[in-house]
Amino acid sequence: MNHFSRKTGEPVLASATLRGTQPGRRAPLSAARPYARFPMAPLQPMKGLVSLIEVETAQPVLALTFDDGPDPERTPRVLDMLAEAGARATFFVIGQKVLRHADLARRIVAEGHEIGNHSFSHPYLVTQGDDAVLREVDLAQRAVFDVVGHQPVIFRAPHGRFTPHQKAMLHANRALPTIGWNVDPKDWRYPGETLIAERMIAGAAPGAILLAHDVNDQMLGALPETLAGILAQGLEFRTISALLGWPRWQDRQPLSLPEPALAASA
Ligand SMILES: [Zn+2]
Questions:
Q1: pLDDT recorded at residue 258
Q2: Pairing assessment for the beta strands 236-238 and 61-67 based on DSSP bridges
Q3: 5 assigned to some structural domain
Q4: pLDDT for 155-192, tens place per residue?
Q5: How many angstroms does the Cα of residue 23 sit away from the middle of ligand 1?
Q6: What are 187-235's pLDDT values in tens digits?
Q7: Which of 3, 67, 68, 159 is catalytic?
Q8: Residue 250 structural domain
């Protein structure tokens, strides 16, 4: 059943229990752990999960998300830092950048991170009709599928702007939940690396979803301190799917995309 965030009134997913996590015991940070060793809870039915901004869990796990890549200069540095920290993250990618930087998208997947759909061309969607929204989503699904062989199972709206109707419409038509965040360090305002790290570390808590951008130099500068500060609290970084106790996103059954919407874009 859904609960509602005390902070924002947005629905949050309840009962995303993650079994097997042992607080206080972490693998060495240098070793990137095989995904299969992450404790997995039983499948959460996707049905009913239209959107969320945080996950209710007592386990010391949270999700770090990076929007707007892949970026040829910065995303590799983010991946290096995540590997060094033994952290898994979720990259909400822009479809047309995935086509341009296919090797980077493949590297994201190869290193155990999740790819989410962040639209094909990053437009403001709130003023657009359902067909236009679905076309942006479908083109991005297809771009990711063509490049890495798997389709995302989650969506995040460009600029975070998406109406309740659009969330419900997307879920009804494509079974994609819209993933928001409950921690925003506002790196997009360039407040300085120190403040970004402070905001990320202060907001870190079990079930939190942290917003970041792997196209932002200040975020990159703040990332080592952010990762260390959060790990020092005994929290572990999971992909969104892992946080929800879902199977590996890349094992999910591909959505069947309607050809006409795609053909219209050719
Ligand atoms: Zn974005």
A1: 54
A2: parallel
A3: no
A4: 999 999 999 999 999 998 988 999 999 999 999 999 99
A5: 33
A6: 999 999 999 999 999 999 999 999 999 999 999 999 999 999 999 999 9
A7: 67
A8: 56-263
* Distance in Å, CA 69 to ligand 1 centroid: 9
Residue 101 placed within a domain: yes
The reported pTM is 0.81
Residue 159 C-alpha to ligand 1 middle, in angstroms? 5
Q: What is the pLDDT of residue 190?
A: 96
> Which of 150, 171, 213, 214 is an active site residue?
213
Query: In whole angstroms, what is the distance from residue 89 CA to residue 82 CA?
Result: 8
CATH for 83: 3.20.20.370
Evaluate whether residue 17 is within a structural domain.
no
171 is catalytic: no
Query: Is 67 part of the annotated catalytic residue set?
Result: yes
CA of 158 to the centre of ligand 1 (A): 4
pLDDT in tens, 88-125: 999 999 999 999 999 999 999 999 999 999 999 999 99
The total domain count for the chain is 1
Quote the ligand 1 centre to 16 CA distance (angstroms): 26
